[in-house]
Amino acid sequence: MRLIEQKWSGNCLLVSITKPSTSRIELETSPPSSPAIKFAMARKLGFTFLLLAVASICEAAAIFNPISESHKSAAIELFSPADGSFSSLEEAFEALRTFEILGIDTKPDLKDSTCKSVVDILSSESSNSKDLYHALRVSSLLKCKINKEALTGVTSRLQGSVKDAKSLLDFYYSIGGLTLIKDQTSEVDVLLDDADGIFQSIKALSQSDGRWRYSSNNPDSSTYAAGVALETLSGIITLTSSELDGNLIEALKKDVVKLFENIDKYDDGANFFNDQHQGPVSATSSVVHGLTTFASASGTLNIPGDKILGLARFFLGIGIHGNSKDLYHQVDALACLDQNRALVPLILSLPASVLSFTSQDKLKVRVTTVLGSTSTTPPLSVKLMQVFTSGSKDASIINQELRFDPKEEVHTLDAFPAGVDVGKYIFAFEIVLSDPEHKKIYATGGRTKVPVYVTGAIKIDNAKIEILESDSVESQNKLDLSGKNDVALSANHLQKLRLSFQLTTPLQNPFNPHQALLKLRHESGVEHIFVVGNSREHFKITLDFLGLVEKLFYLSGKYDIELTVGDAAMENSFSQAHGHIDLDLPEVPEKATRPPPQAVDPYSRFGPMPEISHIFRPQETRPSQQLSYAFLGLVFVPFLAFLVGLSRLGANMKNFPTSTAPATFAILFHGGIAAVLVLYILLWLKLDLFTTLKTLGVLGMFLLFVGHRALSHLASTSSKV
């Protein structure tokens, strides 16, 4: 056995398997993550309810399971608490229930913290019936240690809530809590005193179409509420010490039948319930949960098996949700259907791997429940009933039973039907229950149609390319379309080009590929594509250059010849060049159509830019270091002259103010002048003109103020003298 390449064609994955005749069989499945297909692989393959797993086509191939590792990864990502604890017990139950169904272990520290919250809720006198219900649900999963006194107190409060209940949800939480206590311990009396009266109070909320209202004050009916009501009434049946009135049970069964009469359906047979306030996933899950609970409490329901099977198809086909609520509803509904003993769906699944098929390999099929279990399936057989040719309603009647291997629990198709050639087919499988009585328990959904591609290497014969003039052959070249060719042809506008070849399947039948195209590419980049015609016996195309001169834009010169032949079932599809032809066409008329401008590669602007050559101006010669120091000394000469001049003029500090305020203004004035000088130095070293002017403006206003005060003091002193 050898692994081969996967090929995607549109929304289909071609799983290739090789037959002894060099052809291959490919099972067509939808891509697992394709967002455009709402009901991916499960719906395309028509899931039944003993999951008929058309498993691998090899001894080592893995059987496809409806619940995969991807569901586990999604559950861990969506339900794992960020801070080590769940935000509410309702969220905790949904996470723990999902983990339990998928076989994911719960961390011990998470169990301890959650059980502590459960005990706190059950011990608190302020907890309402909803809080108690969720706490008891979590306790049923984690087996939290709750003493008898606490359960007795909770039971008393829930029984009181049942008597005071005004809405459907009040009954639901209270009765649901009592049912959970009954399942956890037998030491507490949880039975209801007036079960018939409570049953009738809830039944009064039902509608004629099978839906239910949440309360007598709310006129709106809901499908989601119907599931809640069925689960609540099932709890009443289990909490009564004596049998309920049979007429009440029969009336409720009729409501269930009415509810299923309004079920929505997809073309592939998937059934679901819609609700104006809830999404289809949560609404359908609520009905499934209530339906299976009621069936376990009251016995068999008169619901067609295809309806139950359609519900399973819906949940198996919706993929993996990115929302924790919807993922819980999906997994919980599948678990309810899997554990339901009123009508168990059985599913036909497909292979999960891509492996080659040789004469020693077998087509294997497995039948399981919706969660992939084979231990609970009854004795049965799988038959290949029909083989349809794609695009035709005619079918070959096969009625071939697959051999069962009890060790591997798979059904094996030892030999494929005779006459199956390269192409697309539909195999129709059927699950046949050994015991007719099991039809009342298990839903198989009739025949499961599986799209199958038979692929193989197509034989290419009599390939040749010719130049014609007046229908007589001027030159002829034989081509090896499966190898390399490099023909060199020449023609003028009065001649023709003819290409022909034959395609046959391994069973020597004519083969019509999905694409057969001839491309001529001018040396200027202008391309022309022509469809190669099919006369069933062979493919042929003739290009009359006289009638094509306008389409060719009168472009003479070299044209590359490229032929493309391809099909999903053709293993040796190809698209390759086979040489060139030099065309001599007439001169271009003035009003002739010009060839369109060729597209410019948008990424070309990110390519390397042309190199720029530049020679920088050489550095100017500078004076010697001694001369520079001499010039620096001359710069300080005026400053020295200034100091000498001050001494000659008798400058002194005698008139400097001595009192505090005038002295402060005088110091600030001289400091401001020094700051201006420093600013000039900074301008020379690093500051720009705009920064200097802004700073100088601020210093100027400061100097104007302090200078005015200092000079005013000097003027007043002088006037006094």
Structure description:
The chain has about 725 residues and is of the alpha+beta class. Helix content is about 35%, strand content about 20%. It has 17 helices and 28 strands. The strands form 7 sheets. It has a 7-stranded antiparallel β-sheet with strand order 1-2-3-18-16-12-13, with no helix packed on it. The protein is flat. The protein starts with 6 loop residues before the first strand and ends with a helix. The N terminus is likely disordered.
Topology:
Elements: E1 7-9, E2 12-18, E3 23-29, H1 41-44, E4 51-54, H2 69-79, H3 89-102, H4 108-123, H5 129-142, H6 148-164, H7 168-184, H8 195-203, E5 212-213, E6 221-222, H9 223-238, H10 246-261, E7 264-265, E8 271-272, H11 280-298, H12 305-317, H13 324-339, E9 344-345, E10 347-348, E11 363-368, E12 380-389, E13 395-401, E14 403-405, E15 410-413, E16 423-433, E17 442-443, E18 447-456, E19 459-469, E20 472-478, E21 487-492, E22 496-504, E23 515-522, E24 527-531, E25 533-534, E26 539-544, H14 545-548, E27 557-566, E28 574-584, H15 625-649, H16 660-685, H17 689-720
Parallel strand pairs: 9-17, 21-28
Antiparallel strand pairs: 1-2, 2-3, 3-18, 4-11, 5-6, 7-8, 10-11, 11-15, 12-13, 12-16, 14-15, 16-18, 19-20, 19-22, 22-26, 23-24, 23-27, 25-26, 27-28
Helix pairs in contact: 2-3, 3-5, 3-13, 4-5, 5-7, 6-7, 7-9, 8-9, 9-11, 11-13, 12-13, 16-17
